[in-house]
Amino acid sequence: MPMDWKKNPANWEKLAKVVKGEAGWKCEECGMQCRRPGEPFDTHKRTLIVAHLNHRPWDCRRENLKALCFGCYLRYDAEHHAMTRKVNKMKRNSETFKQHELERDQVDASDLIRDSAENLEAFIALRCEPGREKSLALTKLEECVMWANKSIALHGVWTDFEGC
Which residue among 2, 48, 81, 87 is least crowded, i.e. fewest CB within 10 A of its CB? Predict the structure, then answer.
């Protein structure tokens, strides 16, 4: 799955280099010496990657970052990648949160609401036991998105954050 670099801060390259330097360009998990800048490429195994331990690319606190070799990174991230694949498959197949007709300036707000709801829908579907409560939670989530989109369609996007 390709990395979405837009989720990382603008100074990510510099920050990652600092983390790798502090680790001595060694994997902080297995201790493998990895390639330093300027060394010729020989194998992906010696590529050092900075991982977000909580899988949130915007969270760049030092305690959330760890320098890992390619193999350790793949092992560390395997469960998260599997869950992400399931969520994305559910999103592709979901008919629940399809786009309603909105003005151009309302689409971004509606997309954000729908994307957030799709993530919550996938979490509920994958983590809650089947039953009345799960069914109601998904139904109420669908209602929330419908009413939020109707509000945007009728009244536009609210931009007055003074009261927040």
Answer: 2
Give dist(CA 119, CA 111) in Å, integer. Answer: 12
pTM summary value: 0.53
Instruction: Assess whether pLDDT exceeds 80 at residue 102.
Output: no
Q: What is the DSSP string of 24-81?
A: TTB-TTT--B-PPTTSPP--GGG-EEEEETTS-TT---GGGEEEEEHHHHHHHHHHHH
Place of tokens 């493998």: 32
Tokens of 139: 């139904």
Q: Any bridge partners for residue 26, and if so which?
A: 33
Half-sphere exposure in the Cβ direction for 123 (13 Å, CA): 9
Whole-angstrom CA distances from 17 to 51, 53, 115, 129 are 12, 17, 32, 43
HSE (side-chain half, CA atoms, 13 Å) at 164? 4
71-110 CB burial, b ≥16 within 10 A, e <16: bbbeebbeeeeeeeeebeebbeeeebbeeeebeeebeebb
pLDDT for 57-87, tens place per residue?
888 899 999 999 999 999 998 998 898 888 8
Q: Which carries the bigger pLDDT value, residue 128 or residue 105?
A: 128
Tell me the average pLDDT of the chain: 85
